[in-house]
Amino acid sequence: MTGRRSPQSDSSDFVFPRCQAIPQLERASLRIDGREVVGYEFEPGKPRPCFVPVLGPSGKELTRIGHPHPVGHEHHRSVWFGHQFVDDVNFWGEVPNTDIQVRHKRVLWYEDGPDWAAFAAEIDWYADGKNRLSQLLIAAVEPSVRWQGCYALDLQSRFTSPDGRPVALGKTNFGFLGVRLAKTISEQFGGGRLTGSEGGIGEDAIFETRNRWVDYSGPVAPGVMEGIAYFDHPDNPRHPSHWHVRRDGWMSAAFSHPEAYGVAADHPLDLRYRLFIHGVADFESSFPDLDQPWQEFAETPPYEYIARDETGFPSIRRRPRA
Question: Out of 44-48, 101-105, 127-131, 214-218, which region has the weakest mean confidence (pLDDT)?
């Protein structure tokens, strides 16, 4: 990727990267053209890390912390990872006076470049004095070439057993990746609309049905409509996913619905999701045709974290096409 130099390179070879992943105090900043579009918060002691803010093309926030009725929904942290039943431990809600946490352990590497920027992080799902599930997360932002002002937030995870024993992921609608939309984007409290890839519109038509993608779009300012399309990659087990969606401004791919799943030493779980951040002309015209950006995601090779490359440093790359 442009923006990196070998030890032998002259400074004149350097090209300033359009996309950057920048470390900050207890957070990371993902930027396009010098502007933060996504933040990753990982303050120690919090129940889980989360992605906030997530900004639309206009610079307005598309997500929020907490349900519009916040009591009992403290775990709704913009964009976050969780699961209701990991060996019967609830990592979805936030239980006070326990050690149950989705713990950000460390960032392994930040990668800048002309086309995308990313970081790789290790996350421990910790409860009862030990790590129950290990997660290697690669988070990347990529500006759209086809749709001006739009961009993708890719969230790619590998879940493994920390000690080789089987890890049971119980049947549930809750897990792994939750998205809480801004109040004004919701159908119930705002002027938004929920749509699915198979033609469904609204909660009743989409809830617990299979879709390649689900989109939530609505007003973010007077006269300005933007949204988040949530893509399920075809390489994911159980694709197309069932979906947990609500008219109050909530959507999540329900990986463990309708049945449980197991992770073991020789059976990791790889999941790829993309949040496609876009504008909306109006609800009567399709903007964009979300089947097209979903197909681009489907054809995009996964990222890989390399602990030591030819320069002697780590790197994040896209795997070559087979």
Answer: 44-48
* Size of the chain in residues: 322
**CA angle (155 as vertex; 152, 158 as ends), nearest 5:** 155
Amino acid identity at 123: I
d(CA 270, CA 222): 40
Residues 6+ apart with CB under 8 A from 120: 107, 108, 109, 136, 137, 138, 305, 314, 316
Q: Which fold has domain 17-318?
A: Beta-galactosidase; Chain A, domain 5 (2.70.98)
Per-residue pLDDT at 276? 98
Lowest mean pLDDT among 91-100, 237-246, 283-292: 283-292
pLDDT in tens, 43-68: 998 999 999 999 999 999 999 999 88
Residues paired with residue 30 on neighbouring β-strands, in sequence order: 21, 38
Query: Dihedral of CA 80/173/247/297: which sign?
Result: positive
Burial (CB < 10 A; 0-12, 13-18, 19+), residue 152, is buried
pLDDT band at 2 (very low <50, low <70, confident <90, very high): very low
117-127/130-143 β-pairing: antiparallel
- Mean pLDDT, all residues of the chain: 93
List of E strands, the chain: 19-24, 27-32, 35-41, 50-54, 79-83, 101-111, 117-127, 130-143, 151-160, 167-169, 175-180, 193-196, 213-221, 224-232, 242-246, 250-254, 261-263, 269-280, 303-306, 315-318
Predicted confidence at residue 8, as pLDDT, reads 56
Return the closest-CA partner of residue 294 out of 239, 226, 240, 213.
Answer: 213
